[in-house]
Amino acid sequence: MDSKITFPQMHTNTYLMQFAENSSGGVIVIVDKPLDEVDLRILRALALNARISIRELARELNRSPSTVHERIRKLEKMSIITGFTSLLNYKALGYTINALTLLQVDGASIEELESSLAKEPCVRCVYDITGEYDVAVISSFKSVDELDKFVKRLIGKPYVKRSVTSIILRVVKENPHLENFTKGGHHVSKH
Q1: Which of 58, 94, 101, 113 is 20 to 30 Å from 167 at the Cα level?
Q2: CB of 140 closer than 8 Å to CB of 90
Q3: Which residue ranges of the chain lie beneath pLDDT 70?
Q4: Closest by alpha carbon to 127, among 136, 115, 119, 139?
């Protein structure tokens, strides 16, 4: 029996491709129903304003509220919409120190470290990366002292081989959305 989604989902053009592993360890591809222009317009509108009411969105799309509601539920079920959130100004809340930390980790312990980092209250992002380092972490602190304690805890772990931490001096761009998608462009390159 084939297992359900064990690999990431990938969107190509307007199709959702899901990668799963079959019982013999091979990879199979499941292609769901394509997203149509209405789905894409709903996604763009919600990316720009997650607080828009279903009634208002339906009016903009010239669709019934029940149709829009059902489409949103479908997009959530397909894991294309994964949640709705408010964007906070952490600097205004006192988190004035932002850091990027790159870690080289003993291979057998990478996932353990990533899981541990994901539970840290100061950590905003944990990335499993390729290249010279294995893990990239973006974190926020109220003081350099908090950052210092965090870094020392990290490098004290026996499976962390090397650590490089940089303080982010200035944010040039920080956007949770892909602008070419929200402006109606293609969201995945064909190349």
Answers
A1: 113
A2: yes
A3: 1-33, 185-191
A4: 136
CATH code, domain carrying 43: 1.10.10.10
State phi, psi for 7 to the nearest 5 degrees: -120, 165
Q: Say how many domains are in the chain.
A: 2
Domain hosting residue 47, numbered range: 9-77
pLDDT in the model for residue 35: 87
Same domain, 106 and 163: yes
CA dihedral angle for residue 155, residue 158, residue 160, residue 163, rounded to 10 degrees: 30
Give the per-residue pLDDT at 191. 36
51 lies in the same domain as 104: no
Q: Looking at the domain assignment, is residue 4 inside a domain?
A: no
User: Does the predicted model carry a pTM greater than 0.85?
Assistant: no
> 143, 107, 138: which is closest to 120 by C-alpha?
138
- The tokens describing 79, both together, are 């894991």
